[in-house]
Design goal:
Blueprint: E1 2-3, H1 10-20, E2 24-25, H2 33-45, H3 47-63, H4 65-78, H5 82-90
Parallel strand pairs: 1-2
């Protein structure tokens, strides 16, 4: 993945992607089609990027994120949102 972080959460997401070894970033002020092509070429020819992505993909598949999210929502709904109200009143 090649990312040109622009604002909000994009710089953090780009840094995380680089840290995980699955992509590269291009600073906005240094972006050009030629630079993007070079970065893509690096991603496509360096096998470590694909290996890192496959490893993370396996980890994500084991997380069962949809089931975990549904369980969390069901707990919230069954408590009548009590946990959220307590968190809001504490802030």
């Amino acid at each position: 993945m090649v990312v040109m972080p622009y604002s909000y959460d994009q710089p953090d997401n780009g840094a995380r992607m680089v840290r995980l070894g699955v992509g590269r970033t291009i600073p906005r002020r240094r972006y050009s089609a030629k630079r993007a092509a070079r970065e893509l070429e690096e991603l496509l020819t360096e096998p470590n990027y694909g290996l890192a992505a496959a490893k993370i993909g396996q980890r994500i598949q084991q997380e069962q994120g949809t089931a975990a999210a549904c369980d969390a929502l069901e707990r919230l709904l069954s408590s009548g949102g009590e946990g959220q109200r307590r968190a809001q009143s504490a802030s």
